[in-house]
């Protein structure tokens, strides 16, 4: 960014992106401990003693503390007065109270914490149960969705069978109707032929009857009578034998 004598230079922006590119920034955040670390004399961390042990030995931290206190008092960096004794008294009372009532208070606080943790665990278990049930329901719905395709295929097959059955019924109905019409035509032709035959017979018979004269009729009757008499004599002769 450039600026001249007549203009005011804007504040320069500091690029902070490089501060978040270290490998540690991608590491997961460690979980907070449920209980604090070990201490000595109530306020001094155990890590300080472990840090000084390799260099100063076991008495090194105490010698360092005593020497530091002596230096502060000798140089009058800290001057002992009535406030010092008041602070000592207050510290003694506080330490006594912590030693006397600390375990009970800690047990009460732990009980409250356990109740909260138990409630949170119940809520978590309930949520896990509901989520697990939701997963099972989702799997069941997916299984149903997979079976739905088979159901659709079966329905398509049923529809195709119904269509095929309907088509065959219609074909059968058409066949029966055509057969009835053909049978009707055959019966009609048979009736015409029979009527023609009857008409022909009646016509021939009528012509034959009309063609016979009275004399022929009398001769025919006489011939029939004579034949009957001859047959009667023959039958009598057979009977007499």
TrEMBL record:
Q: Name the Gene Ontology molecular function terms of this record.
A: proton-transporting ATP synthase activity, rotational mechanism
| GO cellular component assignments | mitochondrial inner membrane; proton-transporting ATP synthase complex
The UniProt keywords, alphabetically, are: Acetylation, CF(0), Hydrogen ion transport, Ion transport, Membrane, Mitochondrion, Mitochondrion inner membrane, Transit peptide, Transport
Main localization category: mitochondrion
- Cross-referenced Gene3D superfamilies: 1.20.5.2210
Iron keyword on record: no
Q: What superkingdom does the record give?
A: Eukaryota
User: Cellular location of this protein?
Assistant: Mitochondrion; Mitochondrion inner membrane
Question: Entry's InterPro entries?
Answer: ATP_synth_Bsub_B/MI25, ATP_synth_F0_suB
The yes or no answer to whether the keyword Iron is present is no
- Which PANTHER family does the annotation name? ATP SYNTHASE F(0) COMPLEX SUBUNIT B1, MITOCHONDRIAL, MITOCHONDRIAL ATP SYNTHASE B CHAIN
Q: Which family does it belong to?
A: Belongs to the eukaryotic ATPase B chain family.
What is known about what this protein does? Subunit b, of the mitochondrial membrane ATP synthase complex (F(1)F(0) ATP synthase or Complex V) that produces ATP from ADP in the presence of a proton gradient across the membrane which is generated by electron transport complexes of the respiratory chain. ATP synthase complex consist of a soluble F(1) head domain - the catalytic core - and a membrane F(1) domain - the membrane proton channel. These two domains are linked by a central stalk rotating inside the F(1) region and a stationary peripheral stalk.
Cite the record's note on assembly: F-type ATPases have 2 components, CF(1) - the catalytic core - and CF(0) - the membrane proton channel. CF(1) and CF(0) have multiple subunits. Component of the ATP synthase complex composed at least of ATP5F1A/subunit alpha, ATP5F1B/subunit beta, ATP5MC1/subunit c (homooctomer), MT-ATP6/subunit a, MT-ATP8/subunit 8, ATP5ME/subunit e, ATP5MF/subunit f, ATP5MG/subunit g, ATP5MK/subunit k, ATP5MJ/subunit j, ATP5F1C/subunit gamma, ATP5F1D/subunit delta, ATP5F1E/subunit epsilon, ATP5PF/subunit F6, ATP5PB/subunit b, ATP5PD/subunit d, ATP5PO/subunit OSCP.
Give the protein's recorded name.
Answer: ATP synthase subunit b
């Amino acid at each position: 960014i450039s600026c001249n004598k007549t203009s005011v230079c804007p504040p320069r922006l500091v690029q902070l992106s490089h501060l978040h590119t270290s490998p540690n920034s991608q590491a997961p955040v460690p979980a907070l401990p449920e209980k604090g670390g070990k201490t000595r004399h109530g306020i001094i961390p155990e890590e300080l003693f472990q840090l000084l042990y390799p260099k100063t030995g076991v008495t090194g931290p105490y010698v360092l503390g005593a020497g530091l206190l002596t230096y502060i008092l000798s140089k009058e960096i800290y001057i002992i007065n009535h406030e010092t004794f008041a602070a000592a008294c207050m510290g003694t009372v506080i330490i006594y109270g912590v030693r006397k009532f600390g375990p009970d208070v800690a047990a009460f606080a732990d009980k409250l914490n356990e109740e909260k943790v138990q409630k949170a665990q119940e809520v978590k278990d309930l949520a896990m149960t509901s989520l697990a049930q939701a997963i099972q329901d989702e799997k069941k719905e997916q299984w149903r969705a997979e079976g739905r395709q088979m159901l659709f295929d079966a329905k398509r097959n049923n529809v195709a069978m119904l269509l095929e059955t309907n088509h065959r019924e219609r074909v059968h109905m058409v066949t029966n109707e055509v057969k009835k019409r053909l049978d009707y035509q055959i019966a009609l032709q048979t009736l015409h032929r029979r009527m023609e035959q009857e008409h022909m017979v009646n016509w021939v018979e009528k012509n034959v009857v009309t063609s016979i004269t009275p004399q022929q009729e009398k001769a025919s009757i006489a011939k029939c009578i004579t034949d009957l008499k001859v047959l009667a004599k023959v039958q009598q002769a057979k009977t007499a034998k």
